[in-house]
Design goal:
It is built from 29 helices and twelve strands. The chain is mainly α. It has a five-stranded parallel sheet, with helices on both faces. Strand 7, helix 6 and strand 8 form a beta-alpha-beta unit. It is extended and about 120 Å long.
Length: 841
């Protein structure tokens, strides 16, 4: 029996042979992205592409050459594919048929409600996000939905794979190449967005790994498309304003899991197996993948126990090498059913186990089955993929396969990853030979991109440089530029470590060309200048000329960008008068005289200010007072004056006496103002005969402190006991204070009635400064000290005749507080200290 039957014609794989076959990575699309026929005898593949406004010639020898499009070479708007072309591409996008016996495909069980809801939402044009854990059957559900949504949209159904894509640009390019018939063309971003906006299709995007702003960008770029996004719960969720319906996929029920297990085994379950399936359902939360693997365990157990009818009829003969073992293989334990990878791998063929070691070395990526005979060394190793897929160890990802969720970790624990370095080096050397072969088209290399990148990451520097050098032109020709950039960066790093200066110059040149095609001019200049410097050191004239040509295009693009700068808001000419708005005079009021400019008050000040007047022409402004000099503007107003805040330094230039507390503070503690522009000479003001205002403020403060001190002394004296008078009275300054007109205190209505003075008052108890004429009787403490308000002095009133104002008009007397009886010594010290300020003039 020919083991390669069932293989599709697109693969082009010979039937057998020990020599390495001409491998293929998958079924090529019906209409390839690049119309380039393979050259059987050519040493290199030269591909010509159209990238925006440039013509890109991918040259694997000296580096890609880029030039502007020639006049008349511009392409028109491509046409969309018809229904027949879409059907052909859909067939090509399916998972290729595998050689060898096919496994049982379980039916979709327990998903009728989710399927009906998804179809109903997509028919209404709504986008849906299908969220479920790995192994929950998302891909199988997408297959069922795709069969019912093929004719809903005018552009049909498009199936894409989001595995490995973190940016929406590559997905948009894939969608554009699927719907439009534009071979060998990659439009620039603006043109790409304009074309995908007209696509109206149902897009099934499996294994989505992006969310948030990136997903919003994808949805905004294609408003006429309805998306079905299959993802895992750990993927970033979309934004709140994306309006995506959420459908959560949970595990199957217990009965559905039992039916799935029976369908996988192909026979009814025994009572023991049914009880084991119930425990497995509870432990695995009903994930369908666990029951596909459990069915494989039961099939292997049946083969080991020889439960088939043919084995029952046969009897071991005399010449049998191995007699029949009467012992029965028991059911797997619950732990083996929950993590069955090690047990399943131990019961498969040796080629399948070798394929598992290669997949572990490549980070879970399994090469195409056409590559396995060369990688494993077995002619029939291509049948290992079907064997592993039937065991539930593999899962389809687009047109290829990779290890199922959790299988790679379980195999690494079973020592399948001990030879990862050797396996990765073998895979890198094989792919370096395959990607450089002239018969392999760029599309087939792009289909194997994940395995090539995984081999490049795990190989040594020598194998990595060789693989990147041969795979980079193929990725560029297939328009898979995300993989092209990753290969170039990995190759540049490997060439730097290996000391390959020529290869390093090639990789930097290609990175510069790629950045120029994508419009990243700064990155393109940096990469090209690095490449030119390295090639100049090697005296590579052809490479240097190619780099300088590309750099000239970068300079031309930078000149075009500089010649047409983006729109910028400039300051209009009318803003030249806005600077004078801060100098508009404040209207004179009875409380505040007119000032030359509005005084800026610091933050937190309670001083009233007049609102600023609007800027007006010079002819419409009111005439200023004769005392105010005209304001000369410092200079023209720039654009920065509109957006920047200029600090204002408050300075009081007025010659009038202060009337508010803030003005008094400004006079006492002036701030250093900025030097102002020279103004016109002002007329000399009339001599002011009034006393200095600062001296008045200082004297008023001294009087207030005196009143506070004397009030405290009086409170202490009145609160002392009369039974034990002090041995020595408080010392009173002998210097007589200035004698003025006696002031009769005003008694409020709430004060107690004064008592008649004593007949014989001692001379030592005479009225003291700061004390009322009506002194309280010794031994009696007043219940409340009369509160007095100072009489407001008008601003233009003449100064008082005495230097020291009477305490009654300086401020209110403090309210005495009950304190402990002071000692005579403390009372004398406090009184002498408090009475000393009043002795001076």
């Amino acid at each position: 029996m020919d083991r390669t039957q069932g293989q599709t014609e697109q693969d082009g794989q010979p039937a057998g042979g020990s020599a390495p076959p001409v491998p293929g990575s998958g079924q090529a699309p019906a209409s390839s992205a690049v119309n380039t026929a393979p050259t059987p005898h050519g040493p290199a593949r030269v591909v010509t592409l159209t990238a925006g406004d440039f013509t890109l010639t991918v040259n694997p020898v000296d580096g890609s050459e880029i030039e502007p499009l020639r006049p008349g070479a511009e392409r028109g708007r491509p046409a969309k594919r018809d229904a027949a072309a879409r059907t052909a591409r859909e067939i090509a996008a399916r998972v290729p048929a595998l050689p060898g016996p096919g496994g049982l495909i379980p039916a979709l069980l327990g998903r009728d409600e989710e399927q009906e809801r998804l179809v109903r939402l997509l028919a209404r044009g709504r986008s849906v996000r299908l969220t479920g854990p790995s192994g929950s059957g998302r891909s199988v559900l997408l297959d069922a939905v795709a069969a019912r949504c093929a004719g809903l949209a005018p552009d049909g159904l498009v199936r894409l794979s989001g595995y490995g894509h973190q940016q929406p640009s590559e997905l948009l390019q894939t969608l554009y190449a699927t719907v439009y018939d534009a071979p060998g063309e990659r439009p620039e971003r603006d043109e790409l967005l304009a074309r995908v906006r007209d696509i109206g299709a149902v897009v099934l995007l499996d294994d989505l790994e992006m969310g948030g702003p990136a997903l919003d960008e994808l949805l905004r770029a294609t408003p006429e498309c309805a998306y079905l996004l299959a993802t895992t719960p750990d993927t970033r969720s979309p934004s709140d304003d994306s309006h995506i319906e959420e459908v959560f996929l949970t595990g199957l029920g217990k009965a559905d899991c039992a039916h799935l297990l029976e369908a996988g085994v192909g026979r009814p379950l025994t009572d023991e197996e049914t009880a084991w399936a119930g425990d497995l359902w509870f432990a695995s939360e009903g994930l369908p993948l666990r029951f596909v693997q459990a069915a494989a365990l039961l099939r292997q157990r049946d083969e080991l126990n020889h439960t088939a009818e043919d084995d029952d009829e046969e009897e071991p003969g005399v010449f049998d090498e191995r007699p029949r073992d009467p012992a029965q293989v028991p059911l797997p334990t619950l732990a083996e059913g929950a993590a069955p990878a090690e047990l399943l791998a131990s019961r498969v063929s040796e080629s399948a186990r070798a394929a598992l070691r290669i997949a572990c070395a490549l980070g879970g990526e399994l090469p195409h089955h056409a590559h396995l005979p060369a990688l494993v060394g077995d002619t029939h190793a291509d049948t290992a993929v079907a064997e592993l897929l039937a065991c539930g160890l593999l899962t389809p990802v687009g047109t290829r396969y990779r290890l199922a969720a959790g299988v790679a970790r379980q195999l690494e624990e079973a020592a399948y990853g001990d030879t990862a370095a050797e396996e990765a080096r073998t895979a890198a050397r094989h792919y370096a030979w395959w990607t450089g072969h002239a018969s392999v088209t760029p599309e087939r290399v792009a289909a194997e991109a994940d395995a090539v990148l995984a081999a490049l990451a795990g190989a040594d520097v020598v194998a990595a440089v060789l693989l990147a050098r041969t795979a980079a032109p193929a990725f560029a020709g297939s328009l898979h530029w995300e993989a092209w950039e990753r290969v170039l960066r990995s190759g540049a790093e490997a060439a730097r470590k290996a000391g390959e200066v020529a290869e390093q110059a090639y990789f930097h040149h290609e990175l510069g060309v790629l950045a120029l095609c994508e419009g990243r001019l700064d990155r393109a200049r940096a990469e090209l200048e690095t490449s030119i410097g390295l090639r100049g050191a090697l005296a590579d004239k052809r490479g240097t000329v190619a780099g300088r040509r590309a750099l000239a295009l970068v300079v031309d693009r930078e000149t075009e960008v500089a010649a047409s700068p983006p729109l910028r808001l400039e300051a209009p000419a009318a803003l030249a008068a806005a600077s004078e708005a801060l100098t508009v005079p404040t209207p004179a009021t009875p409380a505040t005289p007119a000032t030359p400019a509005t005084r800026a008050v610091p933050a937190g000040s309670s001083a009233p200010t007049a609102p600023l007047a609007k800027a007006a022409p010079a002819a419409d402004r009111p005439a200023l007072s004769a005392r105010v000099a005209p304001v000369v503007p410092v200079g023209p107003v720039s654009a920065e004056a509109v957006t920047r805040m200029t600090p204002v330094v408050p300075v009081n230039r007025s010659q009038e006496p202060p009337t508010t507390l803030s003005e008094v503070f400004e006079d006492a503690f002036p701030l250093s103002p900025k030097p102002a522009a020279p103004a016109a000479p002002k007329p000399a003001p009339a001599p002011d005969r009034r006393p200095d205002r600062r001296r008045l403020v200082l004297l008023a403060g001294a009087g207030a402190l005196t009143v506070v001190a004397l009030g405290t002394v009086v409170a202490l004296a009145l609160g002392s006991s009369d039974d034990t008078p002090p041995a020595q009275g408080p010392a009173v300054s002998s210097t007589p204070s200035s004698v003025g007109t006696p002031t009769v205190p005003s008694v409020s209505g709430n004060d107690p009635a004064p008592e008649p003075p004593a007949a014989s008052a001692p001379a030592s108890e005479a009225a003291q400064p700061g004390q009322s004429a009506t002194a309280p009787t010794p031994g009696r403490t007043p219940g409340r000290t009369p509160s007095r308000r100072p009489s407001a002095t008008p601003p233009n009133s003449p100064p008082p005749s005495s230097v020291s104002p009477p305490p009654t008009t300086a401020g209110p007397s403090p309210t005495p507080t009950e304190t402990a009886d002071p000692t005579p010594t403390a009372t004398q010290a406090v009184t002498a200290t408090a009475a000393s300020p009043t002795a001076g003039p």
